[in-house]
Amino acid sequence: MSHSIKDIAAALGAQAFGAVDRLITSVQEPARAGPDDLALAMDVKYAESLSSGKARAAMVWEGADWEAMGLDAAIIPKRARFAMAPLTALMDQGQGFGAGIHPSAVIDPSAELADDVSVGPLAVIGPRAKIGAGSVIGPQCYIGMDVTIGKDAYLREQVSIGARVRIGERFIAQPGAKIGGDGFSFTSAEKSGIEAVRESLGDQQETEAQLWTRIHSLGSVVIGNDVEIGAITTVDSGTIRDTVIGDGCKFDNMAQIGHNVRIGRDCMICGHVAVAGSTVVGNNVVLGGMTGVTDNIFIGDRVITGGATKILSNVPAGRVMLGYPATQMDKQLEIYKLIRRLPRLFRDVTALKNQTSDDSKD
Amino acid sequence: MSHSIKDIAAALGAQAFGAVDRLITSVQEPARAGPDDLALAMDVKYAESLSSGKARAAMVWEGADWEAMGLDAAIIPKRARFAMAPLTALMDQGQGFGAGIHPSAVIDPSAELADDVSVGPLAVIGPRAKIGAGSVIGPQCYIGMDVTIGKDAYLREQVSIGARVRIGERFIAQPGAKIGGDGFSFTSAEKSGIEAVRESLGDQQETEAQLWTRIHSLGSVVIGNDVEIGAITTVDSGTIRDTVIGDGCKFDNMAQIGHNVRIGRDCMICGHVAVAGSTVVGNNVVLGGMTGVTDNIFIGDRVITGGATKILSNVPAGRVMLGYPATQMDKQLEIYKLIRRLPRLFRDVTALKNQTSDDSKD
Amino acid sequence: MSHSIKDIAAALGAQAFGAVDRLITSVQEPARAGPDDLALAMDVKYAESLSSGKARAAMVWEGADWEAMGLDAAIIPKRARFAMAPLTALMDQGQGFGAGIHPSAVIDPSAELADDVSVGPLAVIGPRAKIGAGSVIGPQCYIGMDVTIGKDAYLREQVSIGARVRIGERFIAQPGAKIGGDGFSFTSAEKSGIEAVRESLGDQQETEAQLWTRIHSLGSVVIGNDVEIGAITTVDSGTIRDTVIGDGCKFDNMAQIGHNVRIGRDCMICGHVAVAGSTVVGNNVVLGGMTGVTDNIFIGDRVITGGATKILSNVPAGRVMLGYPATQMDKQLEIYKLIRRLPRLFRDVTALKNQTSDDSKD
């Protein structure tokens, strides 16, 4: 499918210049772009590869002299990074999941699918599940009983959604995401070592070894509108209340959201993040890759964590955190520098001790 | 399904008071509980929400004046946290997986399923697999050849179990758990840089770049009784001997247990934990979320690790560990405090150096 | 299936001694080996268990007096660890996936499968996918549209491969691996807090809370020859160019390779590793378990990281790294020792301050 420069620019709310009726079939990096591609060169650093390449049309930086670089047509967006969203949406060839309900899908007769829902081969949809208009349930997905999914969902292959999960509109799930597993919650007949350690911060006290007995999850998961869940990310069901994911949250791959967790709206949760049980995360929070958050704490609005941060206690709103244990990023970066200088510090202190010892002999 | 207060209390081994024939349909937090719910208020901090809410029955703390809070009936358990286990087991509505063998399941004729086994839609069961009485094999599960699963197993959707895995009774697997993948074991024709670094702790010596040749896993996985495996947790097959998981172990989501690992009984392995190849873990060990354990080491009985602990060497029995690298928790917490005070220490040492330098000029 | 000692030694390029026509049915550790097993005892530490066990044949260390240990036959390899590769390949009983195309598989008529491709039950193969000769597509796998897989691939159960992914020869994927999910790439209409923090290293500046708009992945994933992907490891599609995995790379379980990442040849990527978007990794790199690599950086050839290393900036070729943040391993090990001695250092400095203060009073 091809699009004119003019139409692309319109979709981006950007300005088009030159041969605006030129047709574009795909998008490429400047060095690889051919005559039918739109080269992406939104920074002056691409000027050379653009001039030496075969592109005839490009999306360029503000003020670029596109004619001098041999282009016939150019698009100049207001904010280059934001223009990538409508541009890639327009050019996405998708997964090619077919329309309609594949005959190999196993759909409970009591499930309610809007007329235009697509269900892929070998998918399973359980009793009384409700799927909104325009939704695509990918191949080999599993939708449990009493699940509700709003309109315009797009589930890649092999996603599973457990009983009673309720999901808003425009939900996207990457391959193998798992929503609504039972929470990890166990108890013991007597006080356990881990309970003692939580109190004492280091001592198992007089506790005896215990057997673990499971606490079932009676709650489920509630997910707002415009949420995207990454490949094989898991969101567990709540124990009594539901686990809650707010509107507009985006999750990367292999994140794990524990039981009872509440996450506000418009958060960005990167890869391999884990948020342990019953923790409450505010709005507009960004958890960098491999961030861990302990259970039963509060993360304020607009908190941002750097990669691999491990949060062991509450974090006030607006803080930017880094490290293990999490510390404010600017302080942590200073500490990292000082730690690298520890060998010298130890030598300095040894020298001072020797000197003082010498002095006292004087 | 509803239960009387009297019957619930009996299931919990707890005392019931007031209108003990009152019927309960579900369990709720105090603020959300309605007249047909059992409010969970096992701590005095819930007194206000209980009084202001609509609950007529609650499970309350020892000594609570339930009548004064407007309740008709109350349950008082001995140990509130432990009472959650039988209570939630009783009230769990489950996943609604049907009884019997779904006609879309693909079951090898040589597989042996006890009479009352349930197999969900589009599940696959391989040659000579044996499934014990009362077991539920969820939708889209895969059970490999020569697998043995004991009685009363409950496998959620999309679980896979590789060839020759042997599992005890009352096994539970959350969505997408993967048991019996091949271990990650590779070798090279000549000594590799990583072999050199393991010896030298930092130097690749004169090694050359190597190709990696795989070592196949001839062993499998053996799992004891009463084990639960979290969503998309993986347990890899052993190289020669089997990987072994002891009775009563509980795993959260996205844990990874490497080839040849042996884990004792009644361990609790939290989310995102990784235990690398050939490591031996004792009994009653608790590995906190994101704990990593290196290969070929020993973790003693009753060791507990805090969140994100990284264990790089053997840990004696009973130790409580924290940090990267793992250190005893009380020492680590002291070190964390001192690290935060490093900027001041560096200033102090600089001042001492200046002063001593001044002194020596005197 | 049994093999003679002579044939096994030939497959290993090793020397055979004694009753070389003796037939072996499986491989065991020395203490467990019976008369029909080959005991693995390539180190002198196994001498006692070999002598006291029931093995009649063993693979032993250079110079072992195998007759004195009661054996009838012995194999002595040149490099014991490397001999494990052909030995385990020979003795592997595999998963028993059947030949041919299972009637329950759903294969698009436009897909091109070489004559001897095996497709397991309930697998799905999309439009125009091409699968090379000798390949095995396991049960419940999903192969998307326009995917190309070279000859002799072996996919365990429940693997998924998204549209347009191109994979070389002899590809192996463990259970549940997911290739070609959409990259995690989002943008906002105005500058976001995280953009500000990347510039300022700690300050969100005057940014306002933003909504996240997705950037679609127009690129796909290209994987070279002889690559193995671990259980539920994910490799995401590129944004414009493809994500690239070089020849000979081996991935353990639960690794996550972000969009646009390029990984060179013959790398070893251990469990729970995450490589964030657009990072470039050289050849022969080894990333230890739980290593994290931030986005948009370069890792040189032959870099090795210890367990749980977190790389926040470029690493030159040949470096051996450890820790968070990553530091050269030898320096990091020294720093770890000094950190453990911090309590004493603080006491020393306090003493020096007191002494100097006393001195100045003199």
Task: Explain how this protein is built.
3 copies of one chain form a homotrimer. The first copy, chain A, is an alpha/beta fold and 362 residues long. Chain A folds into 2 domains: 3-91, Udp-n-acetylmuramoylalanyl-d-glutamate--2,6- Diaminopimelate Ligase, Chain: A, domain 1 (3-Layer(aba) Sandwich); 106-330, Hexapeptide repeat proteins (UDP N-Acetylglucosamine Acyltransferase, domain 1, 3 Solenoid). Chain A contains 6 helices and 39 strands. The first copy, chain A, has a 10-stranded parallel β-sheet with strand order 8-11-14-17-20-25-28-31-34-37, with no helix packed on it. The longest helix of chain A has 20 residues, at 342-361. Chain A starts with a strand and ends with a helix. Chains in contact: A-B, A-C, B-C. Chains A and B meet through strand 20, strand 21, helix 4, strand 22 and helix 5 of A and strand 4, helix 3, helix 5 and helix 6 of B.
How do the strands and helices of this protein lay out in sequence?
3 copies of one chain form a homotrimer.
Chain A: E1 3-4, H1 5-12, E2 15-18, E3 23-24, E4 26-28, E5 37-41, H2 47-52, E6 57-60, E7 73-76, H3 80-91, E8 106-107, E9 112-113, E10 118-119, E11 124-125, E12 130-131, E13 136-137, E14 142-143, E15 148-149, E16 154-155, E17 160-161, E18 166-167, E19 172-173, E20 178-181, E21 186-187, H4 193-200, E22 213-214, E23 221-223, E24 228-229, E25 234-236, E26 243-245, E27 250-251, E28 256-257, E29 262-263, E30 268-269, E31 274-275, E32 280-281, E33 286-287, E34 292-293, E35 298-299, E36 304-305, E37 310-311, E38 320-322, E39 327-328, H5 329-340, H6 342-361
Parallel strand pairs in A: 4-5, 5-6, 6-7, 8-11, 9-12, 10-13, 11-14, 12-15, 13-16, 14-17, 15-18, 16-19, 17-20, 18-23, 19-24, 20-25, 23-26, 25-28, 26-29, 27-30, 28-31, 29-32, 30-33, 31-34, 32-35, 33-36, 34-37, 36-38
Antiparallel strand pairs in A: 1-3, 2-7, 21-22, 38-39
